[in-house]
């Protein structure tokens, strides 16, 4: 019995990963650190500070806490410029239909995003009305793969995690969903998301009927 579906944002509802990539790339260029799309895969679902640490490690560069603070803020300024251009056209194909299907079935929904920019993004995508609650990075102490963000989402909906389904595109996110005791739907490559209970390649392959069928198995 599904009582709630908890969605990740980046890679599930929209592809902000591209904007995060462009923003980090700009910063990495400033720092003289080589960065490409394949390296960027490691940053998906990972918080801002942790992402910067990974980039610095990749470039073999050491910075003071103050400098890190400066560069993390700078990356966010780049990112905020990019997300101003987001429109409902940036929704990933099929995700809106799935969200509508869930709401129509009387199932609750939450957003669990590691991004501190999640709220302006869902506003620009015009999907706020399909989300009953939002938990973003500003409200949690421990980032994914810690289950805190998903547990908090369930709490805010007053639903037992055992009756929740989490939807994620990142490995760390799937780990967080499983650690929260929820059913995990992974979006992306099967190999990378092997811990998920059900993996689809794209959000357009999601359907409530299929989800229910799988939960009954
Ligand atoms: P911000 P998600 C994550 O969003 C992104 O996947 C990740 O690349 C980003 O670094 C992180 O949010 C923090 O974002 O700098 O905006 O706070 O996938 O959890 O929705
Ligand atoms: Mg994600």
Automatic annotation (TrEMBL):
Q: Which SUPFAM superfamilies match?
A: HAD-like
Name of the protein in its database record? Beta-phosphoglucomutase
Q: Which cofactor does it need?
A: Mg(2+)
Task: Give compartment(s).
Answer: Cytoplasm
Task: Please share the entry's free-text remark on the cofactor.
Answer: Binds 2 magnesium ions per subunit.
Q: By its UniProt entry, which Gene3D superfamilies does this protein fall under?
A: HAD superfamily/HAD-like (3.40.50.1000), Putative phosphatase, domain 2 (1.10.150.240)
- State the CDD domains in the record: HAD_BPGM (cd02598)
Question: Which keywords belong to this entry?
Answer: Carbohydrate metabolism, Cytoplasm, Isomerase, Magnesium, Metal-binding, Phosphoprotein
